[in-house]
Design a protein that fits this description.
It is built from no helices and 10 strands. The chain is an all-beta fold.
Length: about 110
């Protein structure tokens, strides 16, 4: 059974940093690409960053140069290091496999104050 548990969100001032974690289970983690998504109030969920099983990364233009996705195949965990945060980064952040599954975790709230 697929399970995704996100953590690490919080309230931070603009320019600050946060590191999100996502513990994944139910699939052979190391063989799967993973991704971080976010959903701001009143907006559709958007793809933020992806990392393949070969550690190739890709980023949305809006976070390129500020966010870094990484993974630990021993701990079945994917991370999102977020630096130089902006108020427009405020959203609930989710992780999922890539391509995404229908199962989602509870997400973790990130709020960036100006």
């Amino acid at each position: 059974q697929v399970q995704l548990v996100e953590s690490g969100g919080g309230l931070v001032q603009a320019g600050g940093s946060l590191r999100l974690s996502c513990a994944a289970s139910g699939r052979i983690f190391r063989l799967n690409a993973m991704a971080w998504y976010r959903q701001a109030p009143g907006k559709q969920r958007e793809l933020v960053a992806t990392i393949t099983s070969s550690y190739i990364t890709n980023y949305a233009d809006s976070v390129l140069g500020r966010f870094t996705i990484s993974r630990n195949n021993v701990e079945n965990t994917v991370y999102l290091q977020m630096n130089s945060l902006k108020p427009e980064d405020t959203a609930v952040y989710y992780c999922n496999y890539q391509p995404e599954l229908a199962v989602w975790g509870q997400g973790t709230q990130v709020t960036v104050s100006s």
